[in-house]
């Protein structure tokens, strides 16, 4: 008998893949967590029926969340990751020698636990000496922080369940307060095919708070539609105006110096969403 997993990305569309076996399933205090081994994408983390990350394509998302803001900021030393309990963004953050401390705030400790067990190549840097892991509410952590971080990355699920508050104007205002005077933040903002209104709303809210607000894109095959967007807000530094001297060599599979700027060149239908 063949076993297939389908993520219903809308009421009329989904993505499906063949499963070798279920590694773990659990209803945590916050969400339904499944870890499965797939034929095509290796081990895969699923939360509330939504694909979060897979061994095969995880590098795209994690590199694009981390390196765009970290190369935009001239000297990122203190970095915060909200969500991201799989550890992939933290792994990429630590590739930057300027980073002295990286704080991970993940509301669901089970995500951390089972990512370490089944996704070790993604979660393997969570025990690094520069990393502080807090199992806590990222929204409240932001609310209680002021002038503390150089870069903040919001690595959340789609705006359902515990992540709903991470897509509000109040949260973005809190991020601005938590950042230093030349701080930069980035958040994943879903896809333009099925959730165009989310992108429009987030861009509007962030623009009211940050003087520099931009949208960039990446191709992630296991995410809805495959075309994914990220919103960056910056107090001072423009991600498309940084000089080539700012870049230094790091090991990546997707992100490059040229791609950094190219990612901000948007298809017209996406550009129309943020005009």
- The SSE string, one letter per element, is EEEEEHEHEHHEHEHEHEEHH
The biggest beta sheet reads: 7 strands, mixed
Q: Could you say which structural class the secondary elements and strand pairing correspond to? A: alpha/beta
CATH topology of the largest domain: Rossmann fold
Q: What is the number of strand segments?
A: 12
Number of domains: 2
How far the N terminus sits from the C terminus, by CA atoms, comes to 50 Å
Strand proportion, as a percent range, falls in: 25-35%
Q: Can you identify the CATH class of the largest domain?
A: Alpha Beta
Q: Number of helix segments? A: 9
Shape, per Cα inertia axes? globular
- Flag low-confidence runs: none
**Mean pLDDT across residues:** 95
Supply the key terms.
single chain; 275 residues; alpha/beta; Spermidine Synthase, Chain: A, domain 2; Rossmann fold; 2 domains; seven-stranded mixed beta sheet; five-stranded antiparallel beta sheet; 9 helices; 12 strands; 32% strand; PABS_CS
3D structure, described in words:
The protein is α/β, with parallel strands linked by helices. The protein has 2 domains: 3-53, Spermidine Synthase, Chain: A, domain 2, CATH 2.30.140.10; 58-274, Rossmann fold. 27% of the residues lie in helices and 32% in strands. It is built from 9 helices and 12 strands. Strand 6, helix 2 and strand 7 (101-106) form a beta-alpha-beta unit. It is globular, with a radius of gyration of 18 Å. The mean pLDDT is 95.
């Amino acid at each position: 008998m063949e076993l297939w997993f389908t993520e219903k990305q809308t009421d009329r569309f989904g993505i499906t893949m063949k499963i070798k076996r279920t590694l773990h399933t659990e209803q945590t205090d916050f969400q339904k967590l499944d870890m499965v081994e797939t034929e095509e994408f290796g081990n895969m983390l699923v939360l509330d029926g939504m694909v979060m990350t897979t061994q095969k394509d995880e590098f795209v998302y994690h590199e694009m969340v981390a390196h765009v803001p970290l190369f935009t900021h001239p000297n990122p030393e203190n970095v915060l990751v909200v969500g991201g309990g799989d550890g992939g963004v933290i792994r990429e953050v630590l590739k930057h020698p300027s980073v002295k401390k990286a704080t991970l705030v993940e509301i669901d400790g089970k995500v951390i636990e089972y990512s370490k067990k089944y996704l070790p190549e993604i979660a393997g840097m969570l025990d690094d000496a520069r990393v502080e892991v807090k199992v806590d509410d990222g929204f409240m952590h932001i609310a209680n922080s002021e002038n503390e971080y150089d870069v903040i990355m919001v690595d959340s699920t789609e705006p359902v369940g515990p992540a709903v508050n991470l897509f509000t104007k109040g949260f973005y205002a809190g991020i601005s307060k938590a950042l230093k005077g030349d701080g930069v933040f980035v958040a994943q903002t879903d896809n333009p095919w099925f959730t165009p209104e989310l992108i429009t709303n987030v861009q509007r809210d962030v623009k009211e708070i940050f003087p520099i607000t931009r949208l960039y894109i990446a191709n992630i095959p296991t995410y809805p539609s495959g075309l994914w967007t990220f919103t960056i807000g910056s107090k001072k530094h423009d991600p498309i105006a940084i000089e080539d001297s700012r870049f230094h060599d790091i090991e990546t599979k997707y992100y490059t110096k040229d791609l950094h700027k190219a990612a901000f060149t948007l298809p017209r239908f996406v550009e129309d969403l943020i005009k």
